[in-house]
Recover the amino acids of this structure.
């Protein structure tokens, strides 16, 4: 299975980079992993709704340019479905069974995803209604993908 994470924003914190590296290394046993970091647009402190929409659209165009036609796209979206780790593992496994073995997870910037990216998504997933820094969220996503593969293989994992 091929897993691609397309994420807006560069990782700056060393400890988050180390966590990403660790989960990336662990995942090599289960899948081919590609992480694409995209430059985020700077958002002024007092940005208007129009400015925020323009920023999301610009980031969205960049995201869409990295999505290949054969990718099954899972957008990380607050309006998406909440799943348990076991349900997430089943969903990923079912994607593979249905011939969708090239999965792209999309993590937007601080303003979220553009409507064009949401429309392109095959599935919308929400980890939590809480807000997380997108850099930290990338670690959380990798951990859950790793956990999903462990569950699919019947290997031990913490419940």
């Amino acid at each position: 299975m091929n897993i691609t994470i397309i994420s807006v924003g560069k990782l700056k914190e060393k400890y988050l980079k180390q966590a990403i590296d660790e989960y990336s290394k662990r995942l090599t046993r289960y899948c081919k992993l590609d992480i694409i970091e995209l430059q985020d647009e700077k958002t002024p402190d007092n940005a208007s709704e129009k400015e925020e929409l323009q920023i999301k659209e610009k980031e969205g165009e960049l995201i869409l340019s990295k999505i290949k036609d054969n990718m099954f796209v899972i957008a990380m979206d607050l309006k998406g479905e909440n799943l348990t780790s076991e349900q997430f593992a089943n969903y990923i496994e079912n994607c593979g069974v249905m011939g969708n073995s090239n999965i792209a997870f999309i993590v937007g910037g601080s303003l979220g995803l553009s409507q064009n990216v949401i429309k392109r998504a095959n599935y919308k997933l929400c980890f939590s209604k809480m807000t997380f820094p997108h850099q930290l969220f990338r670690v959380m996503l990798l951990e859950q993908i790793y956990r999903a593969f462990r569950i699919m293989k019947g290997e031990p994992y913490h419940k």
